[in-house]
């Protein structure tokens, strides 16, 4: 496995491979890798000749007072995980942006609600870094997790709107044995918080069951699901349509429930597909 730190060296290598006809796959991450991340690598691996994984904790997507400085890091463990997953190139830049970097990429509409409402600069940071990474790696296919459901929708929109010739694949959300969505941020939780974190995935699973059982009134569903959350603060709990992410009043087709909640100083997100009985017919 190659380990590359210089952005332009990475670009030169990827461009040369493309000219030779190699198909490039790409999984961008912020490191502290877990099975959620490696599941994306497994999805990408058979779809490309050369698999690039990036690890970069992108300051642009953290707001003031967020956890940029304490974000967990484990470069040696990450390197070993990438080796095991059959990654060809691990890109770990120290400086990703060139001096004087002043371009921002912003997707409107889709970024207004949910995480965008409580983290107003977050998605602009995400689309800006992903656009630069795409310019460096020039991937044919890039894989993102449904764990960050809104992010996946925003990236798909950016790629469509900017006519980037890249296939975007979404990978399923991977959970721990107790149902908690795997996240690098779970490392922040103490034992009690970790136990209470289960209430998030359980409330979402309850919603999925209730919708499968025929409940269609969103206000009723959300009130009952909220009562199941044992967290310090709910950032949001919403039911939206799966493409435009607009809040629904009634469920008449496939939908998505998304939640963000705080346990102490840790903000966790999770989501689940909602499929009413009518959608099975
Ligand atoms: P991050 O390192 O948190 O920026 O995540 C990098 C990529 O891994 C993103 O596409 C995430 O959606 C994805 N990811 C993180 N956690 C999970 C998970 N539990 N299941 C599936 N994908 C995940």
How is the topology of this model organized?
Blueprint: E1 2-4, H1 7-19, E2 24-29, H2 35-44, E3 50-55, H3 75-84, E4 89-91, H4 115-118, H5 122-137, E5 141-145, H6 149-161, E6 167-171, H7 191-212, H8 218-226, E7 233-240, E8 255-263, E9 266-274, H9 277-280
Parallel strand pairs: 1-4, 2-3, 2-5, 3-4, 5-6
Antiparallel strand pairs: 7-8, 8-9
Helix pairs in contact: 5-6, 7-8
The structure holds adenosine monophosphate.
- Total helical segments: 9
Which class best fits the helix and strand makeup? alpha/beta
Number of strand elements: 9
Ligand list? adenosine monophosphate
Oligomer: single chain
Query: Which second-level CATH architecture of the largest domain applies?
Result: 3-Layer(aba) Sandwich
Stated plainly, the CATH topology of the largest domain is called Rossmann fold
Major sheet: arrangement of strands: 1-4-3-2-5-6
Rounded average pLDDT: 97
Largest beta sheet, briefly?
Answer: 6 strands, parallel
Name of the top-level CATH class of the largest domain: Alpha Beta
Distance between the termini: 48 Å
Report helical residue fraction.
25-40%
Radius of gyration: 19 Å
Q: Which consecutive residue ranges, at least 5 long each, have pLDDT under 50? A: none
């Amino acid at each position: 496995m190659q380990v590359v730190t210089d952005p332009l060296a990475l670009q030169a290598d990827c461009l040369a491979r493309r000219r030779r006809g190699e198909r490039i796959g790409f999984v961008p991450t912020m490191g502290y890798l877990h099975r959620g991340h490696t599941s994306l690598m497994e999805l990408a691996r058979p779809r490309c000749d050369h698999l690039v994984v990036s690890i970069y904790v992108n300051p642009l997507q953290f707001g003031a007072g967020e956890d940029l400085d304490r974000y967990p890091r484990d470069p040696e463990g990450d390197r070993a995980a990438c080796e095991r997953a059959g990654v060809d190139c691990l890109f770990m830049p120290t400086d990703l942006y060139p001096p004087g970097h002043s371009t921002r990429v912003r997707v409107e509409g889709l970024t207004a609600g949910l995480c965008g409402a409580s983290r107003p600069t977050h998605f602009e940071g995400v689309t800006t870094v992903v656009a630069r990474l795409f310019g460096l790696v020039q991937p044919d296919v890039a894989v993102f997790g449904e764990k960050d459901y809104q992010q996946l929708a925003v990236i798909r929109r950016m790629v469509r709107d900017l006519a980037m010739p890249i296939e975007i694949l979404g990978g399923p959300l991977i959970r721990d044995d107790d149902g908690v969505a795997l996240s690098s941020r779970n490392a922040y939780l103490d034992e009690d918080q970790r136990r209470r974190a289960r209430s998030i995935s359980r409330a979402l699973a309850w919603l999925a069951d209730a919708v499968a059982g025929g409940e269609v009134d969103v206000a009723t569903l959300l009130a009952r699901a909220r009562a199941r959350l044992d967290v310090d603060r709910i950032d949001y709990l919403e039911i939206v349509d799966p493409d435009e992410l607009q809040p629904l009043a009634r469920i008449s087709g496939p939908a998505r429930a998304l939640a963000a909640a705080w346990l102490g100083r840790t903000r966790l997100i999770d989501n689940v597909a909602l499929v009413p009985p009518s959608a099975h017919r």
